[in-house]
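Teaching note: in complex prediction, the entire set of molecules is handled at once rather than each chain in isolation. The prompt given to students was simply: 'Predict the structure of this complex.' The entities are:
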Amino acid sequence: MSMSGIGAPVRRKEDFRFITGKGHYTDDINRPGQAHAVFLRSPHAHATINRIDASAALKMPGVLAVFTGDDLAADKVGGLICGWMIHSKDGSPMKAGAHPALAQGKVRYVGDHVAVVIADTYAQAREAAEKIVVDYTVLPAVTDMNAAVKPGAPVVHDVASDNTVYNWHLGDKAATDAAFAKAKHVTKLDIVNNRLVPNAMEPRAAVGDYDFGADSFTLYTTSQNPHVARLVLSAFIGIAPEHKLRVIAPDVGGGFGSKIFIYAEETVCVWASKKVGRPVKWTADRTEAFLADAHGRDHITHAELALDDKGKILGLRVNTKANLGAYLSTFSSSVPTYLYAPLLSGQYDIPAIYAEVDGIYTTTAPVDAYRGAGRPEATFVVERLMEVAAREIGVDPAQFRKKNFVTKFPHQTPVIMCYDAGDYNASLEKALEMADYKNVGKRKRESAKKGLLRGVGISAYIEACGIAPSAAVGSLGAGVGLWESAEVRVNPIGTVEILTGSHSHGQGHETTFAQLVSSRLGVPIDNVSIVHGDTDKVQMGMGTYGSRSGAVGMSAIVKALDKIEAKAKKVAAYVLEASDADIEFKDGKFSVKGTDKSVDFPSVALQAYIAHKFNGQDLEPGLKESAFWDPTNFTFPAGVHICELEIDPQTGVTRIDRWTAVDDFGEIINPMIVEGQVHGGIAQGIGQALCEGAVYNKDGQLLTASYMDYTMPRADDVPSYNVGMTQTRCPSNPLGIKGCGEAGAIAAPPAVVNALTDALGHENVPMPATPHAVWRAAQSTIAKQAAE
Amino acid sequence: MPVVSMTVNGKAVSADVDPRTLLVQYLRENLRLTGTHVGCDTSQCGACVVHVNGAAIKSCTALAVALEGANVTTIEGLAQGGKLHPMQEAFRENHGLQCGFCTPGMIMSAVDIVNRKGNKLEEKLIREELEGNICRCTGYHNIVKAISAGAEAMGG
Amino acid sequence: MYPFTYHQPENARKAATVAGKLEDAKFLAGGMTLLPTMKQRLASPANLVDLAKCDDLRGIEVAARSVTIGAMTRHVDVANSKELQEAIPALADLAGMIGDPAVRNRGTIGGSLANNDPAADYPAAALALGATIVTNKRKIEAEQYFTGLFETALEDGEVITKVVFPIPAKAGYEKFRNPASRYAIVGVFVAKKGSEVRVAVTGAGSSGVFRATKIEAALTAKFSSKSLEGVKMPAEGLNSDIHADAEYRAHLITVMAKRATDKAK
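The expected output is the structure of the full assembly:
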């Protein structure tokens, strides 16, 4: 392993600009003549719009235009789409209500887009927006899923009179019923997976810029997948054909899923730039982000686990209601279905699984993928059940898991997935050791002496990452393929540009991708640059989410590098006057087998371009190759996290004392970056478990619309993390990578709740387990202790 | 509109501003110093932290006009003579950043912590002192490590 | 923000004069509450009278029986004052617990008291210590000063110049923070002076800071956290919100009072 090669903790190449304040985020971009957009948002959760009177607003200083849904419709701008078709049990397609970028006749959640004001300055636009008079007829709100499906509930979309988008299912019901019929023990659990707001620190922003000369648009935006944005804006929304629309996602300050989607604001900015003849900029404030970014999670689940008399799992039954909010966001339909139920087998050998999922409309912000997307919800169900089942049958939770682990690979689960490689025992053993699990009892007694309740919780998670084989997801309803593309441009002096369809918004691709290229071509890492986030530069791309940039994005680069090597060998053969079959490439040098004749990579690059040593008809000049990689399987990162915490029953405050994470991500390019991804994921998972929860009141007002009320985990809310690795190579991609971006957020919530319930001695504590909630939960614990 | 003059990163600057202009807007829009970021509306996230007359403040919650004559240091002014500040180095060395958006505020707060609390910082103290800076990417682990290391390096 | 005219007088007398002459004028101290409120367009004064250049409003003076703190003294200066740490350590301690470091570098005692946020810390100290709020016009006893949520006895154009805190024998402050905003859900300041114990609670009351007479009685009998075992505060009149209901707040008052008593010195 070299200092900068695969496996080395190379310090990040992108950091210099960030630590010196020289990053370029969307809000840092200003175009000449730029105007500013402010969106008038619905103050009501549910209302019909009778009339919008913008006459006073239009007279305000600096105002260029006020647009409403009618203007978009007149221009034949299509609605926002949901790109994954889900079919109900009865075969009927999901009921997708129209989703106009600006409301047409009705608003369906607080923050919904009613109109846009475009003015010379932001302040002018904001002032004018307050002058727009909207005549609403307020309709009753419905924020609770159980209420939404009751007869007589307010109807969010006429296409779904029972507010149900789909009744979907997966698995074998008969086999699962049979498994439960012969069960010796059944563990039952009702679970709420709380609604979260992603909260990337950079709020969403967009600058739309229409070039009259070229009749083409440029959209600068905070996107995790600029090509997907271009595709949707072109093919579905109809802003402009793809060759007339350039989407640039420059430095993006975190995404976590929320910047995958194609939203109203970005759509309107790019469209409006032509309407007003000036670039149009919009930057969300934090409250807009709370109101209108797609939220995450929000499930209600009843789950049952059937065991035989030896503690082996016989079957799993899951019934989930998933809140999809007021509209179907870009990939929302897939999150509680195909990104969820196929993970319900966890790390366990479960012969029969049956899951039913109802997708529900409510008058709340749309819900879509948020770090982990479906997999945290599945892991929470499985790992809570495992912990509770172990407690009920009186077996150590670690031993109970071991007994049921999948140990032979490949392993076909009853719910689509075929696990290709793993060693779940190895991760568990290592985690137990690192966490000093055997001495927990002693530490509990020490805490008790101080009047504190100590608990320990295990979470053995699995996820399906590296999404995804295109044909496979196509058969499940996806509207797109989930390959990735790459281009390798070798310059005449041997420096290398990699153009990738992956997008880095914190993941460090400029470093890890360069490490791969550097070690493969033997060029110094500083001679490799990574280009991403621009549809005019990068040939194509599907973007970054689902922990796919390593497993899929880098695999595309490898494939292109294979072609580069093959071509370069041909050039080297001419240079070395040998047959190309005799050329070997190693450590940046081409040599003729069995001789000391060699030429280095930069010299071959130069020869490829000057093309003096070969005939251009026999071999094309140049050294540039591109590739598309379509994965053959999902990847299956898995691991064990152990949380140990103390509760102060007087206040309900939980302090996490130790966090142990042991993950198997397959091959690792840069362990420093991988560990950083794990840390961040854990903090988000702890956030879900202890801090964060979006709360709507019954009128559909979001009560947690700023950091005054939505608890972001801060530095003193979380511990240091003890992170370890095990490794089984992923067989389905050339690098053996599984992906690491979401693991922490998937693993952490059940680890925390299992620890809390261990400390409390009962299972009744909700997420987020705020001090208030834990204090309530601790009352029965204290009463029980007093009675003993 | 009043003219507001101050010293920013050692340079005398001056601009006509609407009295409503916040310091962060003055820096970002008038001076094009876009390293200072806005991450919230309620003075909590800390992405906008700069130093005014040597002390860390939230530039989203200060009027530019009120800071006539002030000496302001932003993230762009931390490196001296082409050499990174030890705290900047420590953030890079310890992988104390991912998306980079909170980073300028984090680093400015970190330097302020060292200025107030010295070069030997316990983990617990660092975490408490970071109360006004929110990061969504790193889980804070490496930020805490970076600040501890940066504090020592600042001691020479 | 809505437009306003900005004024920056260089002493308190001029500030009061300027404000007196203007329509719809508001004083700007550290701005830690007023500016966010204006940014959210929840406040729209036509005139903003910035007190930042009023050096006569700054400073901490410790006398034999009292401490006087200028209205524009920042939280950081109160927290770090060696003299105050000797005289009323609980007050310095409280100032060091307000907001975060960057907020403490701007926020002022006068601004906090004038705003009277029901979750702010200083009102608890002022009420428990029996402070006198001195304005350009008069002296107001803390008991008369706090009149409700964000409401005080201050009249238009009246500006706080300083706050006088009698030095207690012992005092302590403890707060339970709102996990999101970090403001006080419950903050309890206990102060013992001679035989009198005064206990003020911030964050919890639906009409702002109040004295917890039940706890005062228990601590007057004996100034020890043990005296508070079994003391149950009534939930009536306490706030309920998504972070804490009234019952939890009532419980926390006793817990924080115990901890403040244990800390008292």
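Point out the following to students. The mean pLDDT of chain C is 96. The radius of gyration of chain C is 18 Å.
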